[in-house]
Amino acid sequence: MAEEAASAPAGTEAPPPGKMTMVAGVDDSDHSFYALQWALRHFFPPGQPQQYRLVVVTAKPSAASAVGLAGPGAADVLPYVEADLKKTALRVIDKAKALCAQVSDAVFEAVEGDARNVLCEAVERHHAEMLVVGSHGYGAIKRAVLGSVSDYCAHHAHCTVMIVKKPKQHKH
Amino acid sequence: MAEEAASAPAADAGTEAPPPGKMTMVAGVDDSDHSFYALQWALQHFFPPAPQPQQYRLVVVTAKPSAASAVGLAGPGAADVLPYVEADLKKTALRVIDKAKSLCALVSDAVFEAVEGDARNVLCEAVERHHAEMLVVGSHGYGAIKRAVLGSVSDYCAHHAHCTVMIVKKPKQHQH
């Protein structure tokens, strides 16, 4: 890694060559915002030169997939579901932007699709070296039924995957 | 996190007292390229060479399987083989530790441990013992079937470790 001149760390305009890209996956859950805050605290310390470029990605499921099992009359509901999903995604992005206020190099994306694919594609697109996701802490059965985005990403993302867990109890 | 004074770079090299709340990172290694790649990746990203201050305390852990578990399915005559297997496993674990020590030469605050037991439990216990905030492991990149049969240490740790788990993958091809 290039040694940075320690005498001019604050407000460095030109990112050092080889600045790493980190994708952070967020959804509308406490676990994922905890993961984002954890990443910010450890990798984007205020006042120090920022070594990473942050890309915050949220996946917006398509309305059709969200009401998939509804049956007749589903078509009528679609526009409302679509509007609600859009609103949720925008709210997630706004909350993420507020959390990342001190990050100089941050990009925010809301992408339509299943979270698993959206995150892995975002990693490819941004040539990210790291993907940060939260973990709902589901047990084995819930995982089998609901699926686990963090598991999928741990297996399929082409970069280092960091799974941040919200502690269930105060450890120390 | 305490804001570090960016105006005093001269005092960074060879800082004796770790800043309060220095994070502990456990790195699991075994005798495979994937896990040394993961260790080197972690060193490259989290332990930049001086004069930058080291923000982490590194604990490198390797698991030495017990000889009995390694020859478990051998059948009669296994008992005779045990001492040789035990010696070989010990040698492997020491070799892994030595290789890790040479890789981590730049790290000021590093501890190396070889613990007997299954890798899954050893790593999760090490996290508990050192109150680590992060666990770094490599990934063999097994497919679904191999995982089901052989088990995956990184999967187990991702589910059961009580801290952030970082799974580092050795790229199969040169990405960019």
TrEMBL record, chain A:
Identify one Pfam family in the record: Usp
Q: Which PANTHER family match?
A: ADENINE NUCLEOTIDE ALPHA HYDROLASES-LIKE SUPERFAMILY PROTEIN (PTHR46553)
Q: What is this protein called?
A: UspA domain-containing protein
The UspA domain sits at 21-165
Q: Where does the signal sequence lie? A: none
Q: What Gene3D superfamilies does UniProt report for this protein, alphabetically?
A: HUPs
* Organism listed in the record: Miscanthus lutarioriparius
Q: InterPro entries per the record?
A: Rossmann-like_a/b/a_fold, Universal_stress_UspA, UspA
TrEMBL record, chain B:
Gene3D superfamilies according to UniProt: HUPs
Give the region (Disordered) as residue ranges: 1-23
Which InterPro entries does the record cross-reference, listed alphabetically?
A: Rossmann-like_a/b/a_fold (IPR014729), Universal_stress_UspA (IPR006015), UspA (IPR006016)
Q: Which Pfam families match?
A: Usp
Q: Where is the composition biased (Low complexity)?
A: 1-16
Q: Which domain of life is it from?
A: Eukaryota
Annotated UspA domain ranges read 24-169
- Protein's name according to its UniProt entry: UspA domain-containing protein
Organism of derivation: Miscanthus lutarioriparius
